[in-house]
Structure formats: C-alpha cells, structure tokens
Amino acid sequence: MTYDEKRRALKDEFDARVASLTKQREVARLEHEEQLADIIFLQRAEKTRYEADLLTLAELERLEEEMRLQAELDEQERIEGIGKVTTFDLWNAVAQRKMPKYSPLAGPLDLDAFGEALLFNIVGNPDREVGSVRYEIDYRDEAGKVILQKTQVENRAPHAVFAKDRSATLVNAFNLMPGVLAVTATCFTAIRGGGEAGVPVTLKLTITGKGSGIKPARTARVPMSFTADPNFKEENLPKAIKEPYAQFRTLLVKGGDEM
Length: 259
Prior knowledge:
Elements: H1 3-31, H2 33-82, E1 85-92, E2 97-98, E3 109-110, E4 120-126, E5 132-140, E6 146-154, E7 159-160, E8 173-174, E9 179-188, E10 201-208, H3 239-247, E11 250-251
Parallel strand pairs: 3-10
Antiparallel strand pairs: 1-2, 1-4, 4-7, 5-6, 5-9, 8-11, 9-10
C-alpha cells in the first residue's frame, strides 16, 4: 500500500469515527450534558491521534527516501571503486604504438587526414588496474548497415577494442571504414569479464573519408605476408563470404585471432 493510500485509509477511518461520535453527541446533548462533554473530548482526542498518525507517516516516508538515496550512493561508490575506462587511444597497429595526435580520441575521425592507408586499433585506458575489460562493439557504415557487432573481452593491457594476437602482446590490425563506431567498455574485477562490473563507458566515433584500404607497412614487430592471385575476382567469392568481404577487410596479424 502506498503512502497516499495509507493517508486516504486514515482519513476514511477518521471520518467514520467522527461521524459516529457526532451522532452520539447529538443523542447525548438531548440526554446528559456530562456525557456530551466526554464525547467532545473523545472527538478532540481522535483528531489529535489522526494528526499524529499523519506526522508519523510523513516521517517514515522521509526516512525511507533517505535510505533509498543512501543505498544508491553506496552502490555508485562501490561500482566506481571497481574502475572504468576514462579515455580511448587510436593506435597504429603496424608500428604497435598509439598516435599522440589522436589520443585520447575525441570527435570525428577523418581517414583522409592520414594521407595514406593505415591499419588501426583502439585501446581503452582504465583509471586503475582491473581484471579485464569487456567491449561491446556496434560498427555500422554510413547507410546504417552493420559492419561489425561483437563482444570482446581483454584481460591484459593494452586493452585493445579489436583484440590482440594469440600471444596477447601485439594489438591486431583493423581496416577502419567510414561509418559510426560505438564501443561500450565495462571494467571487471576478474579476468574474462568475471567478478564485479564497473561503470560502463561508451565511445561513439563518427568516421569519415574514403578509407583507402589496407596498405602493408614494413615492421619487424608485426611480420606480414601476402600472396597475390592473378585470377582472383571478388564476384567469384561464395555467397556466404562475399557480403562480409565487401563490407570490410581485416588484416590478420600472423598467428593472430580473426576479428
């Protein structure tokens, strides 16, 4: 029963008692003045009790609201104590380092501004040591069509949105394309997204430009090899992989996980 319902119930009970006593008062007035005085006293006592009950209800309601607000503050403090991702950096996945000009990431990202095709990853930075970071990725092209949707959990730093290789030391390389990338990062106290969850933080990044495709770069840290097939034609691909191939292309770090 809500407090408003309790108040109405008290009012109904009060009105009923007063009506009964009023009737008795009228009878008593005709019979005995002494009895009339007693009934008047009882009426006043009922009003006093009713007003006291209302005050009690109001105090209980106030205390209950204070307890609810305090519980919310305690829960928020507990969650914030777990940690959260405060910034995201753009990494050059070939050179295996962040790009200072785009770290932290903020605002639109113009692919044409790089002057050449680069292979990227995005790294989230927790505000403290955490067990793992879970990324929920929703990447769509300019027409709203899904490029990539997946959940990725990173146990070690750097906590790469597009994952790391099997050694968990090198960030994978990903070919960004024009569209909107939304990444929700949640820190956890244990590995593999276990334990308690922290405050989710979302990065929403608008990516513009032509996205000129993959261009291999020389690096000793990320060995790459490519085999050209002179007879390759995209239209000859099986239907099951033609559409994903057309939507996006990834470069697999040798021995790494596929995105």
